[in-house]
Write a structure and sequence with these properties.
The chain has 256 residues and is an alpha/beta fold. The protein has a single domain, classed as P-loop containing nucleotide triphosphate hydrolases (Rossmann fold, 3-Layer(aba) Sandwich), CATH 3.40.50.300. Helix content is 33%, strand content 30%. It has nine helices and twelve strands. Bound molecules: adenosine-5'-diphosphate (ADP) and magnesium ion.
Length: 256
């Protein structure tokens, strides 16, 4: 469904994705792991067609995604409906006067029918139906994120990309989101730098190192047992402890 071939991406002269290749099959749940600055958000933006690699290729359903392709009105309409991205900060997505309008926006843009039914269905599923007439800025961070998620899911997409979706959530809402995503029958790619959460979010891990290379593609549980790989990804650090007079050191996962 998604295929990246030798993708290289640079901001000016700095490479932030180095020769990245992988494929994602329909309905796979992928966790994209890497420390801050490794290139996760950039990779999601490429998959969402918001930016394009300088070298290498990205295919969605065997169609090469290029700036020119996304100028084709029929194609872009289909692509924007099928592949959606939840940004890390909901405030960058929200701009409508009410929650209802926010959720309805994409449907209106794409000329999709039965707006009212769809908006209400997803608002209810996400537990935000009581806010439909409210201005979104009055909501909490977690509620805003649910509004953003509703505004994407209402399009009935095929690929849901989520950029660190738990980073601003309290533990209870994080637990809710994990369960909610588990139930969704979609292809999902979720970025995180949190190792403990990663296992809850999918089975297959793609890991990007600090120097922007894909260093692991496979079973996440195996990855988390591999201390050398964890060190390579800078996802662990050595931590010193003192218990009374005894000092010892061991590896700590970066899950905070
Ligand atoms: N618009 C930009 N212009 C220049 N550099 C950027 C821009 N966006 C991100 N970067 C840099 O690219 C690298 C990768 O960023 P990003 O994809 O956001 O990583 P991550 O999501 O893994 O934290 C970082 O070093 C970041 O500072
Ligand atoms: Mg990021």
């Amino acid at each position: 469904m998604i295929k990246l071939k030798n993708v290289i991406f640079k901001y000016d002269k700095t490479e932030v994705l180095k020769d990245i290749s992988f494929e994602v099959k329909e309905k796979e749940k992928i966790v994209l792991l890497g420390i801050n600055g490794s290139g996760k958000s950039t990779l999601l933006k490429i998959i969402n067609g918001l930016t394009f690699p300088q070298k290498g290729e990205y295919f969605y359903k065997n169609e090469k995604i290029t700036p020119k392709k996304l100028k084709n009105k029929d194609f872009v309409r289909k692509f924007r409906k099928e592949v959606v991205l939840l940004f890390q900060n909901p405030d960058t997505m929200i701009f409508n006067p009410t929650v209802y309008d926010e959720i309805a926006f994409g449907l209106r843009q794409l000329g999709i029918e039965e707006i009212d039914e769809k908006v209400k269905y997803w608002a209810e599923k996400l537990g935000i139906e009581q806010y439909l007439d409210c201005p979104p800025f009055e909501l909490s961070g977690g509620e805003k994120q649910k509004v953003c998620l509703a505004s994407l899911l209402v399009l009935e997409p095929e690929v849901l990309l989520l950029d660190e979706p738990t980073s601003n959530l309290d533990p209870r809402t994080t637990g809710w989101l994990i369960d909610f995503l588990y139930e969704l029958d979609l292809t999902t790619i979720i970025t995180t730098h949190n190792l403990s959460l990663a296992l809850e979010l999918g089975d297959r891990g793609l890991v990007i190192s600090e120097d922007h290379q894909l260093i692991y593609d496979g079973n996440l549980e195996e990855f988390i047992k591999d201390i050398d790989k964890l060190k390579e990804a800078n996802l662990v650090h050595i931590h010193r402890h003192r218990h009374g007079n005894i000092q010892h050191k061991h590896y700590h996962l970066h899950d905070f």
